[in-house]
Write a structure and sequence with these properties.
With 332 residues, the chain is α/β, with parallel strands linked by helices. The chain has 13 helices and 10 strands. The chain is elongated and about 75 Å long.
Length: 332
């Protein structure tokens, strides 16, 4: 008479429902029958009157798994599905992968529980965001250049100058690859020490190339407040895709994007990491280290979520500490 709860990761759900012969062939599995769908067996094993409710968090991460959704929707009287996401893709995004029938079911499903950005701020769940694009200048000519055309070390100095000038002590950086992540970490750590005049900096990589226990220890260390003189003054973790959906550290002050998501939903998943309310910060800070075009694209994507620009503001920032000093002098 009491409910039974099972917690399954996305990969387990895919193995249970969509490791059929086509998937097995693609993965070169020699015995595809061992990977047939087990979902129908579970449903058939329910007693009369029993029903199954499946709650799929971040379901957009599974929008390529057609067999999974076909299994979930096959027996609606026995199995109900609740799909949750903060990254709502348009139907055309998953229609080709899930099939028209599954896509129409999702499109026509009853929506519930949605919270607007204004409501989230009103309820104290999140804070607003200020998004800035860093503009660099060529050392020889003094002309503005796109940051993507500058060496990685120069971009590390731009990020460090921004953090120091704005008193930002915790940040997550998002890179385009593991190789870039591993290369950026020591450059940023050294740049923070230099820009801050010798304060302590702690930068670590978090990506799929690291062991799970090691990543967990790194993230635990990242969240520790400074309580001793020997503790780092600046803490930064650098990642690719691992610290987006579901990563919750309310004290995170800033996100730095060396790789900018192409979709509005993906972009919001990133910048909302620093928009979680902690009762201390008034706004989450975001730095775009890209091109002029990236800044324009991000403005267009964010406008979809905040059409009146009530909670997200946009700006530009210098690429050096001298640039900040010049700004202060001009505004004095």
């Amino acid at each position: 008479d009491k409910p039974v709860y099972l917690i399954l990761c996305h990969q387990t759900m895919k193995i249970m429902t969509c490791m059929g012969s086509a998937e097995a062939k693609k993965k070169k599995i020699k015995k595809p029958k061992l990977y047939k769908s087990q979902w129908s067996d579970i449903l058939e094993g329910l007693c009369d009157g029993q029903r199954l409710m499946v709650v799929v968090d971040e379901w957009h991460k599974l929008h390529h798994a057609r067999d999974l959704f076909t299994s979930l929707f096959a027996q609606p009287k026995r199995c109900k599905a609740l799909l949750m996401t903060g990254t709502e893709h348009p139907t055309k995004t998953y229609r080709s992968t899930l099939g028209k029938e599954n896509a129409d079911i999702i499109k026509n499903a009853r929506k519930t529980g949605g919270v607007t950005m204004s409501e989230g701020i009103q309820f104290g769940y999140i804070v607003g965001a200020h998004v800035e694009t860093v503009y660099a200048t060529d050392a020889a000519t003094g002309e503005a250049v796109d940051c993507k055309d500058t060496p990685l070390g120069a971009r590390a100095k731009q990020v460090a100058a921004w953090m120091v000038a704005n008193s930002i002590r915790t940040a997550v950086c998002y890179c385009k690859s593991i190789t870039q992540t591993d290369a950026f970490v020591p450059l940023l750590e050294a740049a923070l020490v230099e820009a801050s005049g010798g304060l302590r900096a702690w930068c670590r990589p978090v990506h799929s190339g690291k062991a799970c226990k090691g990543k967990n220890r790194t993230l635990d260390e990242f969240k520790k407040p400074k309580t001793r003189a020997e503790d780092p003054d600046y803490r930064v973790v650098v990642s690719v895709d691992m610290l987006k959906e579901g990563y919750d550290f309310a004290g995170l002050e800033a996100c730095v994007l060396l790789a900018i998501p192409p979709s509005s939903g993906g972009l919001m998943q990133v910048i909302q990491r620093c928009m979680r309310a902690d009762g201390k910060k008034a706004v989450g800070r975001v730095l775009l280290v890209g091109t002029d075009r990236d800044g324009g694209n991000v403005a267009g994507l964010l406008h979809q979520h905040d059409p009146k620009w009530e909670h997200i503001s946009l700006g530009a920032t210098p690429g050096t500490l001298q640039g900040y000093a010049d700004l202060a002098a001009n505004n004095a």
